[in-house]
Each structure stands twice: as C-alpha cells, then as structure tokens.
C-alpha cells in the first residue's frame, strides 16, 4: 500500500461541478483548500465553493481561468442521452479545458477525470479490473474512452477514475421504482450491477488527489458487485413493499441491461482508500434513513 499524505493548501478547479463535483468541493473546502466550481449555473454552488461561470463547450468562456491551479478535476456529465451530448461533455469540453490551461501556461500538479465502467463491454458476469480490455457498447462509453485517451495523452499528469453506477442524495430513482411497484427484475441469467455512493465518489477523488504518486487509472466501485435481484429484493424488504417479480418490462430503466460484469476495486483499496459505504446495503440504508419519508 502506498502512503497517503495531506496536500498542503491547494488551488483547485472542479470543471463541470454538478452533484459529484459539489460533494468533492465541499470535502476539499473543509480541508482548507481554495476550491473553484466551474459550471453554467453557479448559483447552485454552496458558499464553500467559489463560482466560476463558464460553459465548457464555449472556449471563450474559459479564457480567464483561476490562476496558479494546483489540481483540476473534470466531473462534467452529458445533459442528454445522445452522441452529440456525450461528445460535447466528455471530449469537446475536456479538449477546450486542456487548451485553456495550456494557453494560460497553467501547470497543475494533476488532472483527474471521472469516467465510467461503461467503457467495458463484458456482459456475461466476467470479472473486470483496470487491465481488462475495453470495447464500449454504446456512444457514452465510446466518448468516455475518447476523453480518457485525450487526457492521458495530454501534457498534464493525469488520473482517470472509472465510476460504477452512482447513487445517493438526489439519485433515488431505483428506490422510487421499487417503492411504487414499477421495478421488474430481468429474466434470464444473473445481471450483475456495480455501484458507488456519491460520497465515496467524492472521497475517492480526494484520496487520489492526496496520493503522492497516483497511477493513471482506477476503478471506482464498492466492494460488492451485486445481482440485480439481490438489490431489488433487499430494497423491497427495507421499504416494506412486495418484492419485484421477474419478467419483461416496457420501461427503459427496467429492461435487461446490455452489460453484466463484476468490477474489482482492489487497486483503489490497495492505494489506501477506505469506503464510507462498502456495499449497496450501507449506502441505501443511509439514504433511506436520511431522505425517504
């Protein structure tokens, strides 16, 4: 295990500062770092994060980035589910930020990029880690891989964190589907799902920032790749509602996923990160306790 150390007071930019970025920025601000949140609607940022109003897809809005940046996080997400939006979020926006940093002679110690386990096409329950082949099955994964290559091939030291399905405050769709009896478990072989709580996304990113020499790639998932059945039945029990049944569904979010894989977090854990929510049980239990009526 490589040792972790607290980074001295740093000037940090979080580009695409949405849900994960805000959670990360709040953590870093509590460590006394100076944190800038880059987004179009800066009024949504908490007071602990300094606003920088810009649009990553419009280069002229990036012409006066905060100076002397020590770290830059790229946590942008697509605002629609089509190739144009994915390309804008994960490729064009990232390229614009890299160009702006280089054009302003910025020399951040490291850039960190949130990617996704969607870059893997394995679909038969295979175990996946950082060395597994990638062959994205849809446009989001293709564009994320393009963004990864763009960043890792840039002039800046960089680290990519491939995140599983993010849940947490504001991300309760699965809970609500189970509560309302809309969840249906896919028929056929087991469907494995990989998750990470939003707070562990932020915690892992802060951890990687604090590592003296992080690697270029990590998987960000919790300890248990869980079968879809297991998660849905557990949630139904906690909510006191009937267990979802097996069968087809016309709802897009309940169709059988085209990916079923089991992702390992061994490398992230070996680097010293300790999960706040080791499995979906702890994470969803906290969510149900804090937010659910």
Topology summary:
Elements: E1 11-15, H1 19-30, E2 34-39, E3 50-53, E4 71-74, H2 83-103, E5 110-116, E6 126-128, H3 139-152, E7 158-163, E8 165-167, H4 173-179, E9 192-193, E10 195-197, H5 198-210, E11 217-220, E12 226-227, H6 228-239, E13 261-263, H7 266-270, H8 280-291
Parallel strand pairs: 1-2, 1-4, 2-3, 4-5, 5-7, 6-13, 7-11, 8-10
Antiparallel strand pairs: 9-12
Helix pairs in contact: 1-5, 2-3, 4-6, 6-8
In short:
By secondary structure, the chain is of the alpha/beta class. It contains 8 helices and 13 strands.
Helix share bin: 25-40%
- The CATH architecture of the domain at 11-166 and 197-222 and 261-277 is 3-Layer(aba) Sandwich
Class of secondary structure makeup: alpha/beta
Give the low-confidence spans: 250-257
Describe this structure in words.
- This protein is of the alpha/beta class and 293 residues long.
- The protein has a domain at 11-166 and 197-222 and 261-277: Rossmann fold (3-Layer(aba) Sandwich), CATH 3.40.50.
- The chain has eight helices and 13 strands.
- It has helices at residues 19-30, 83-103, 139-152, 173-179, 198-210, 228-239, 266-270, 280-291; strands at 11-15, 34-39, 50-53, 71-74, 110-116, 126-128, 158-163, 165-167, 192-193, 195-197, 217-220, 226-227, 261-263.
- Strands 3-2-1-4-5-7-11 form a seven-stranded parallel β-sheet, sandwiched between helices.
- The N and C termini lie far apart (42 Å).
